Amino acid sequence: MKYVYSFNEGNKEMKNILGGKGANLAEMTKLNLPVPEGFTITTEACLSYYHNEGSIKKEIVAEILEHLKKLEQSTGKTFGHGKRPLLLSVRSGSPISMPGMMDTILNLGLNEESVKTLIDLTQNKRFVYDSYRRFIMMYADVVKGYDRNVFELKLEEYKKRKNVKKDTELDEIDLENLSKEYLKIYESQNGSPFPSDPTRQLLEAISAVFRSWNNDRAIYYRKMNNIPDNLGTAVNIQSMVFGNIGSNSGSGVAFTRNPSTGEKKLYGEYLMNAQGEDVVAGIRTPLSIDSLYQTNPTLFKQFEYYANILETHYKDMQDMEFTIEEGKLYMLQTRNGKRTPEAALKIAVDMVHENLITKKEAILRLTPKELSSILHPTFIMHDKTAITKGIPASPGAAVGQIYFTAKDVIDAKKQGIKAILVRTETSPEDIEGMHHAEGILTIRGGMTSHAAVVARGMGVCCVSGCENIIADETTKTLQFPNNQILKEGQTISLNGTTGEVFLGSIPLKESLDNDNLLEFLNWTDEFKTIEVRANADTEKDAITAKKLGASGIGLCRTEHMFFDTSRIFSFRKMILSVSLEERVKYLQELLPYQREDFYKLFKTVAPEAVVIRYLDPPLHEFLPKTLEEKEQLARSLNINMDTMEERISSLKEFNPMMGHRGCRLCITYPEIAIMQTKAIIEACILLLQENIAIKPEIMIPLTVDQKEFEVVKKIVDDTANKIMRDHQVKIEYVVGTMIELPRACVLADKIAESAEFFSFGTNDLTQLTYGFSRDDSGKFLEEYKNKNIIENDPFKTIDQNGVGSLMKVAISIAKKVRPNISLGVCGEHAGDEQSIIFCKEIGLHYVSCSPYRIPAAKLVSAQIALK
Amino acid sequence: MKYVYSFNEGNKEMKNILGGKGANLAEMTKLNLPVPEGFTITTEACLSYYHNEGSIKKEIVAEILEHLKKLEQSTGKTFGHGKRPLLLSVRSGSPISMPGMMDTILNLGLNEESVKTLIDLTQNKRFVYDSYRRFIMMYADVVKGYDRNVFELKLEEYKKRKNVKKDTELDEIDLENLSKEYLKIYESQNGSPFPSDPTRQLLEAISAVFRSWNNDRAIYYRKMNNIPDNLGTAVNIQSMVFGNIGSNSGSGVAFTRNPSTGEKKLYGEYLMNAQGEDVVAGIRTPLSIDSLYQTNPTLFKQFEYYANILETHYKDMQDMEFTIEEGKLYMLQTRNGKRTPEAALKIAVDMVHENLITKKEAILRLTPKELSSILHPTFIMHDKTAITKGIPASPGAAVGQIYFTAKDVIDAKKQGIKAILVRTETSPEDIEGMHHAEGILTIRGGMTSHAAVVARGMGVCCVSGCENIIADETTKTLQFPNNQILKEGQTISLNGTTGEVFLGSIPLKESLDNDNLLEFLNWTDEFKTIEVRANADTEKDAITAKKLGASGIGLCRTEHMFFDTSRIFSFRKMILSVSLEERVKYLQELLPYQREDFYKLFKTVAPEAVVIRYLDPPLHEFLPKTLEEKEQLARSLNINMDTMEERISSLKEFNPMMGHRGCRLCITYPEIAIMQTKAIIEACILLLQENIAIKPEIMIPLTVDQKEFEVVKKIVDDTANKIMRDHQVKIEYVVGTMIELPRACVLADKIAESAEFFSFGTNDLTQLTYGFSRDDSGKFLEEYKNKNIIENDPFKTIDQNGVGSLMKVAISIAKKVRPNISLGVCGEHAGDEQSIIFCKEIGLHYVSCSPYRIPAAKLVSAQIALK
Hints:
Two copies of one chain form a homodimer. Chain A has 34 helices and 33 strands. By secondary structure, chain A is an alpha/beta fold. The first copy, chain A, has an eight-stranded mixed sheet.
């Protein structure tokens, strides 16, 4: 087993054993870039260290020393002593980047002897003591674990005494004294003096880096990022170059493109007369890389040249570290740079245009999460601290004044006020208010509460389940955990991507109408494996969906059409009627609205498919809440308030989710299904007169049984046939069903005999398979996650074992009866990466998600083919 | 094909073609009982009549006439004319008894000629005209469909004119005139005169009986009783014997044993000088069969002798018709008699003791429904009309004064008042009141609403879902559909077996502590195929269960133990606590109670098994409702009322059925499971000191996942191990789970790796598989039944296609992992016949039902083996 590789022995593919940094140092060496020579001790040596009870095996020590000897030979220097003393940097580097989590020691090899020799050689006493004091502190900190602050305080003391602010204002005498004081501090803590033997320094430093793999912050970082604990870190030993020799030396970091915007232009910063650590430490303000062009154009061009080589070679934006030693440029590190989602998209699209990468590669460069977040506004950089944190229910950021009812939000909007809707929980009648709000904050409910689902559907930022706030809707106040109280009209900021809530206002970056995105989404179509349809209830939603490239509408929820102020009154009269005649009369009032809704929707989407789901929620969701509304309604129905309250209370249910809803309404009130069928067929007839053909897919919700489905289908067919006869036209349509109850899954073969398509309603299917009410499960799901009982929120990612196995049963038995049955999914899962992959695996033809989740879904659909 | 059988050609096994009556006439003929001669036209002739467009085929007519000729020869009479005219009765008789549904014509063959001859022969003009007027009316009614009332009115007119009350007070002249008037009425309606040709009379009468198979009331009866429509009726042609010749003639009906009590003693009634129809018509009051012994002991003994032959031959209680013609006894019909459940049980047990039937036969004689009803009080015969009708939620009958709260019922009980609890719906806190009520009436809820389930569990009569009553709990009034209003304290009667509600009081027959039942139940054990355990939460339940022969307790619902007034206060303090310390403190208060509960329960049931389910319902079910309770609780918790209301409201759930309940409570509040485990194990230790060993089966409710189960099991095991260590004893116990969520079914193999037994909770499994909330589905399930979408209420009878198929999956995969896993069911279905058969089929080891359903379940368990 080989444990140590010279930089010229490795390459960028060897990340697993050399770590990311080591592999890239080797690759840069191969590319003949000016990389200070060195070698890498492998991750396997690190694992061996742990297996060997925390000590480096003899044969590995031997291999290290052998490589050290070669390094001495090729640099013509000797480690830590002799005429030309060799100094080293010792840096960690794990296979998966964990920036800042592990340790680094620079200037290794300094001791009394080499310090003297170097002063003689460089005639730069200040530089040598500057390096020495840095080394002593790093060694004490990293190898021995002594408190770094003791050293920092001493440095501060020197600066104070001399009345200066910057380290660079200390002179050689100061630094010499400081170094001596550091040695004393070390000795007083350690009991014996600072080690002067360079080899001992080196081996201790290597051990310390190995150990840093298991320091607390590294373990936490790995846990947070799902990085396995058994990878280990490599250690890179490199001959030092010095940015702190003087004013023609320096250190810097730079990106080949702007990591924030993606603009193709070097972006970075540097400091002269500094070592790398100073650039990030923020002691002095670094200069923009652009200014290097003015002060040293040759060097700048040289760097630009190297950067270009690296980007072309790696075919990705690079994040590089460099040092200038007395006018000579050295490359110390390169890696693929982190970037914002916007930048990631622009870079991927630009690189395709530059023929640097293929469309396939571009598609694989972005994550669904990145693509989603591009559509939402975000905060600019800020340093505010959140006052509390809820569930990140709908991504994006929002700033506005708080209001406690949908009506107040609408009124505020009319006055040009940006409003945040605050509710204990939202209900369908809040929809108009939610539409007008910048963001939504709820006290109750999780990722799939009403507020969350509707907000994501609308692309409105939402923080839900903020259980430690008290919202008092009567006094219109919010009370935070610190007892601070906000009144109506005061301003808060919400981060729907993190769940954070801030007092006051944080400036926003608005989302772009992004050409890169649209072009990118077009590319995904070339590789798509599963169609992506949209959940869209309005013409506006449909336009957005079409623009983002949805293959039609997979779910139009007709109930949302009734909440509009112009309709809700008729709808309420209908549901509170006690006779068929009355109900039919009020449905007749609704028919023109519903017909127009469908007309607009169909016209927008044609010739793509539109799946229309019939009225689904329990009727009580539509009931009036305020006394005023009730009185108005009672007058209009010509009943007294007692009767009104009785009728309202008769619609109350214990478990509305499992109550009188879905196609159960079609069975008990066929007149509703008749009206909806009329609206659909009549809309199709109007379009036919404009030569627009559409084949609506009528979807019956909550089916439990074949017979039940057939009863409803007959209502639809009879109604449609009558209208078609009356108009002497033929409209093509299909009637299918949602599969959202466990019983429908196990009887899917029977149901498929009658139903022409299936769409899995995985929200309800998840609720019923688990017996988890999505509005109530927030209370215990958190505990389930903490106790590792469940890994993923099943309302976010399809539970493949339970829910998924019911879906598989349904598909397999249904296909035996109707081999070409169209199969889709229209739950919230349709926007989730893992779930989409699962849907493709089990043979679904499309996923249907809210418009703002289409980009991510299309990306996943294409990535499935490319991964 | 042979279409006509003489009575001496058939036997009792030939019911399918001869009908019940025909087959039994043939059998009696075979037994040499005095049966007037005759023949039977088969059901196939009836079917042929329908296939032949409503006319009798020539070959069948020929066969009938041939048998008629033989009948003339053997009786020495000629049909409808000649010196000794033969008269006939024509009676229907289908393979399955449909009493009174189809038609009969007596005295057929009378015409001017035979009337004269008969007067000469009998010298009894009155008898002949009595027979003639009866015949004309029956023929007009049955064959022609003329309104019988026209004839009846004419008869009344005669009696009025003569100022008499009884038909028998009319003399021969009256009857002769009446006959002539009848002939006129007939002719005026028919246009042509009454047919005098006897053969024509006969064939028309036969056709009419065939047609009566499809009269409205017969069709309705078949629908109600699930009798196939394609059986057809046979027609029995029999030479007339006359009970109306004079005072030494008569007709009667009798049972071999008392059909109401089962007492072994002839039971029946008769009328002298009457035809059979008069006995049932109620014109004169019939005499008890006992009085025949006084007036004519020889005849009585002869009849008793025949009755005994028949019962011994049929091995069942017989229902017989007889006629005495001038002192000679004729047997006209026998069949197995209908009887009350009490009589059925006593007769079956007695016949085993008499060695008339075997235990197997006895077990097959009773239906589960009969056996169930024996335990409940019933109304005596009454003629009250129900004021409204709800769902028959828990069988039995109850009379009492109405009260609107559980507390008022309890107070009334203390004053010795029999109370009926009236609630819009009941909740667990009403349990104590339900226990003290004679019966329960609810406005909402179906067969498996809280009220229904608890009432059946307690054996208390309950009518639920009486939606057309308005119960106002504030004014304490009930308003009925006819707007009649009842106040607190007024009396109603409930029939929980039919769902009827009556105003005022109806006398009750109390259920017996029935030795026959206990003996009978013992016999079922010899043939049992599946064990029957009891759902029992209290010592009292357990005693009942043990007495009725339950094989242990299959479900002890621990939550019911907390509703007792002595405990609910501590329990409420516990659930409203916000800190672990507080909760533990209040749980500590509950521990002694719970330990004592288990101690008593175990002691009663040992050495049989006891399955204890851990706390299951959502906590808000336990919350205080009245202001007084809340204030008391707030004082005790030292919090103000705002805080109290906040805590109460934080427990509110949208869909509590799918909320924070079941083992989710064990995950979030492990301290509750710890307390329950302590109570169980400590109770076992106490019993061990008395040398009573019990192996409790600890059942975790609402499991969705193996990991979840393991977390809870660990809490149980850790707690138990600690106590056992502390006491230095070893208590055997097992930990299993309910399978009541669809996810648990499809992941049953994983769960079975950790769970030691399964009990299917088919109530919740049905709710979740269908997405039907059992508290809300009443609203639409009725409509589903009306539209034939569902056949059976899935909460009453297991839905084998949907729920059943999930159960089968669970069993099949679980057995692969744990082949000997104990499998039971503890939902409401455990008391339903079809469901028990299904449970046996799919391999369950036991069903666990409420104590009052044990007899029926044990019966089914045995019948499975015997059928």
